[in-house]
Amino acid sequence: QVQLVESGGGLVQAGGSLTLSCAASGFAISDYYMRWVRQAPGKARELVEGVSNVGDTYEQGRFTFSRDNAKNMLHLQIGNLQPEDTAVYYCNARKPGGSADNDIWGQGTQVTVSS
Fold first, then answer.
1. Residue 51: predicted pLDDT
2. What value, to the nearest 5°, has the Cα angle with vertex 73 and ends 101 and 46?
């Protein structure tokens, strides 16, 4: 069964940090373009960032993205969390050159940042 399962969300005070994880099963993330997407209340989903199937870890501002192909897992560390980071965070997988119609989505993990 093809599946993505996110974990690690929770309630955090502003300025804190969290590490979200995404465990994949039924397929190899090394064959896919992996992304983190978030959706805040009342807003459309927005791309946090994508982690290519080439790179393993990179930082972008407050976000550190990493993938562990051996464990078939993806991680997202968010530092200096702000209330505007409050959202459901989703893990997404897409075959390179593939259609969005065939995307694989997790169920999401809630991140709530209090001020």
1. 59
2. 45
